[in-house]
Amino acid sequence: MLTMMSTPNHTGVKISGDYFDLDDLNQAFYKVIGKEGQFHGYEGSRMRLLGLSYEIRHAAQGDRNVEFVFNGLHEHMMKEKGFIAPDKNIYFSVEILWPELIYAAIAMKDFVSLYQKNSSKSVWDIHLPVIYRFQSLVLDCLQGHIPDNQYEIILQAFDQPVTVNNYAIQYVDLLNLKYIAMTKEEREQSLSTIAMKLAVQDKDYQAFRQQVLAAATPGKKQIHEIEVSAKYPEDFDW
């Protein structure tokens, strides 16, 4: 079963599951976000989701964390059924930064809508329930780490029809880097604020986006093609 839990220092979220859980999620990502250039204005967000999918795929391959999780098989059950088997399953996991994961959950709303328009059998689609569960798990994990009144406001914001069409994805990098630089206590206090900034695209985001657009205009680049100068630290505490 796919699960999510905040990391010890609240830097991010650990996504865990067995091989099939993570592979299903990875396949759903690939299917729903479409092919390169398929959705005009969404290439930056698609690249962002591909980055998350990359981490999930490598986790499923055992390239990130490997854990042993109790599978419910008790000694009494083995005696009763007359067999011996492991009482733990192998689970794989990977840590994702909180701002990155929240943005992914938001961006998937647009991609789900685009996917449904291009899928004549979307009601019976096997990939959409996987995406819905992914988004629900992100929100459920978020709920466990912010006050209830703030969560209700964020939930309402998530339900608003805000689009990530031509989104300045560099803003996610900005929030990621700010979040990494915080202390554990600062992260706990600012998590709801960051979630709101990603959900509603406030004036800070709009001002940032205008700066990116100004940088993109001279070379006639797409908004997602402008690189951020700041670099991620090679190592930090999750």
Automatic annotation (TrEMBL):
It comes from the Bacteria. This is DUF6904 family protein. InterPro entries: DUF6904 (IPR054199). It comes from Metaplanococcus flavidus.
